[in-house]
Amino acid sequence: MDRRRFLELTGAGAGAVVAGVASPSDARAEGPETPEASPRRAPFVRVGQAPDVCVIGAGAFGLWSALELQRLGATVEVVDLYGPGNSRATSGGETRGVRTSYGDRPHGPQWGRWANEAIRRWKAWDEEHSGREVAPFFYTTGDLILRAEMQPYLERTMALWDDLGVEYEQPSMDVVAREFPQIRSDDMTVALYEPQAGVVRARRVMESVATVFQREGGTVTIGRAAPGRVDAGRLTEVTVEGGDPISAGTYQWACGPWLAKVLPNPMEGRLRIPMGHVFYFGTPPGSNAFNWPNFPSYGVPGCTGWPALPPDHRGFRVRTGGRPPEDPDVSQRGVIPEEGLQRGIDFVKERFPALADAPILETRACHYESGPSRNFVVDVHPEWENAWITGCGSAEAFKQGPVLGEYIAHRIMGQDLEPELAEGFRLPEETFESDEG
Question: Which among 340, 366, 392 is the end of a domain?
C-alpha cells in the first residue's frame, strides 16, 4: 500500500490511526473530513517524524501487529521493557504447540478457524525466513489426544474439525499402541489425531519477526514505557524511562502479563497471570524414539507436551501445571516448587516408562494471562480514544499470532476484516471478583 492510500484510509473510522497532537480544528484545515469520519477521532495529520503507531510490548500481540501495521503503510515504533523473545515474556519460551482442537473453549469455533489458518502461515513464514543457515521455526508433529472415555470436548472438537474441513483421524487404541509405543495408553479408550498440528520455536521466531520488522523500516526500543500526557481524551505521549518520550498518533498496549501494572485502571480485576512450568527431559542415549518426527505432540489429562526438536534436541517437553500469580518482573522462573517438580517426574514415570530415569535437562516458566471472558481483548481504551488494549491471550494467542496480528492491525487502521468478532473482543465490563459473586 502506498503512502497516499494509507493517508486516505487513516482519515476515517473509529479505528483510524491519527498522528501527532493536532486538534480536530487543525486537522480540518488540511482538508475536508470524509463522510465516514467518526466524531470521536481527528483525521490523520502527519507531525514531524513521530511514528504513526507506538506499540508497547514486543510479544505475539505486539510484534505481529507492528509488522502488519507497517506493511499497511504506517510508521511504527515498538517499545519493550526487555526485548523480543526475552526470558520473562509469555512468548519467550523455547517452544509452543499449534493445534485446532478447541472443543473445550467457549470461543472454540473462532479460535479453531484462526489456528487452522495460522498453521498455514507458520509454514509460509518458515519457507520465507528459514533455510540452509537457519533451522526451521515450525515443525509438523501431528497432535495426539488421549482420553479414558469419549467426552463432550472430543465430540465438539470433531464437530469443529468437520465444519472447518480440518484433517483428523480417530485411531483405535490398538493402532495407537502400535504406532506410538513410547506412551502408555492401556488405560485409554479414545484417541484423536490431528496430522497438521505442529510446534513452533517460540523465542527464535519472535526474534525473527523483530528482525524482519526492523529490516522493513520499523524501530524497536528497549525501555520501560508508561502512559504520559493526556489531552481531551487522547493520549499524547508515552514516557520511556531513561529516554525521550514518544509521541504517536495511536498507541497499542500489548504488554501481556504486565497490562495490569501499566494500565491499572482499565485492567484492575480483569487480568489473571498464573505461572506455567515446563520440563525438558533427556531422551535415551542412542534412541530417536522421543525425537521429531518419531513422536507427535500429545495431550492427556493433566499434561501436554511434544518431542525433542532438531537441531539442538533440548529434550522431551512436558507441561503439567503451574503456580499462583506473581509480579512478572521479579517472579522466580528458575525455581520450581518441589510439588510442581515432583508432579512432572511422576507423570513421566507413569506415562512414558522409557523415560522413568531420564534427567531433567532444562526448565522453562512463563506467565499466562486471561480475562473474565476467556477470550482475547482487542478494544479501544475506555478513556483514551487513540489507544488500544490488546491482550488476555489465555495461553493460546501465540499460536494464532500471524492471524491475530493481521486482525489487530486492520482494526487499528479502520479496516475491520471481521466486524462480527469485535463484540467478543471487547474489554469485559465484569471483573473476576464480580464474576465470581
Answer: 366
| 184 within domain boundaries | no
The pLDDT tens digits for 292-321 are 999 999 999 999 999 999 999 999 999 988
Whether the per-residue pLDDT at 29 is higher than 90: the answer is no
**Same structural domain, 260 and 383:** yes
Do 358 and 402 share a domain, yes or no? Answer: no
- What tens digit of pLDDT does each residue of 168-223 get? 999 999 999 999 999 999 999 999 999 999 999 999 999 999 999 999 999 999 99
- What does the alpha-carbon distance between residue 172 and residue 39 come to, in Å, rounded to a whole number? 61
* Reported pTM: 0.88
Instruction: Dig out the grid coordinates for 80 from the structure.
Output: 519493550
Residues 267, 281, single domain; the answer is no
Per the listing, cell 534412541 goes with 287
Q: Looking at the domain assignment, is residue 117 inside a domain?
A: no
Q: Quick check: is 109 in a domain?
A: no
**Integer angstrom CA distances of residue 304 from 99, 258, 427:** 12, 26, 30
Only one residue has cell 511504527, namely 76
Are residue 258 and residue 289 in the same domain, yes or no? no
Residue 135 falls within a domain, yes or no? no
The three cell numbers locating residue 221: 526500543
Length of the chain: 437
Counting the structural domains of the chain, the total is 2
For residues 283 and 360, membership in a common domain is answered with yes
List the domain range (segments joined by +) for residue 401: 3-88+204-271+373-435
B/e letters for 424-434, b = 16+ CB within 10 Å, e = fewer, are: ebebbeeeeee
CA dihedral 239, 241, 62, 199 (to 10 degrees): -170
**pLDDT tier at 33 (50, 70, 90 boundaries)?**
very low
Q: How far apart are CA 28 and CA 22, in angstroms?
A: 10
- Are 256 and 301 within one domain? no
